[in-house]
């Protein structure tokens, strides 16, 4: 009977899990192993770029790649993992629940924004966490361009001063001027609970974020939280009122709840605490990867972040190790020693850092060019060519 590796999710981790699994199976001469990806559609959504305009273009069709590598795609939403029967229940379009078995399972179902329990957010708030949400914000901004000029129309409030919030806030002046006219006075406000701009980052990186914010005219409300959102503005917990038609929430993500029936340790973000080979400890046939995995990157206490950078490598290791486990081959302990960041800062440029201590290496246009190469080329799927894809899927090949 044909053996199957089932991968749940077609994001960065899921896609690379499938390619890496296909690669090792090919290298081992195993032509009977089925590698299947279960996801709503064979599409990679380029989530790290959802702060940009033209969101509809930020996708990649995975079907040609899957076809070239003989990876089976199954359309559906995974709903339940039955570890005793070694299968997954999923909801296919216009059908009842369907059961599919696996020999090895890779959970790459990703993460979602933690929706805030704030009055008015559901009715009047926005986020850019998923493609539909980012499209909704873009459509809203396009509609504002047709409305009479006002302070509320020209003001955007970004809630959360992490990487997503910073990239969105620094991109907004250019986006609004492109929509409303280059001479329009716009106002961008970042509401941040922390006591410092970029407080969770290195001092060198904080200084650059502060400098870029000053040059772009971005206001920061520190030690602040949102109390309520309504049609015409936002009220902060200290009573400050900001007139705005656009409030965007960017703070905090949580791993998918899929697999909540499994007896396993999860971290504060809902990620499975996995072994070095990315297995869920009590389940030798189940791997977790990408935003679903709390995994050590090195021997210095660092763990993978919920980021594209880590999801890609985690996927490569998960796919490789799932096949290795199935075939009785020694797997590879996940390691990702090098850590870099490349933060887009809108018209100011960008900043590139290396190491967990975030040493600044490039700034402004030099960093901007690197950012464009990373997000416009490097993170996209490889060509639908077996040799090219398999070379890129080697877990031990250098990524950045």
TrEMBL record:
GO terms for molecular function: NADH dehydrogenase activity. Residues 1-21 form the signal peptide. It holds the Pfam family Pyr_redox_2. InterPro entries: FAD/NAD-bd_sf, FAD/NAD-binding_dom, NDH-2. It comes from the Bacteria. Residues 4-313 form the FAD/NAD(P)-binding domain. Keywords: FAD, Flavoprotein, NAD, Oxidoreductase, Signal. Belongs to the NADH dehydrogenase family. This is NAD(P)/FAD-dependent oxidoreductase. The lineage of its organism: Bacteria, Pseudomonadati, Pseudomonadota, Gammaproteobacteria, Enterobacterales.
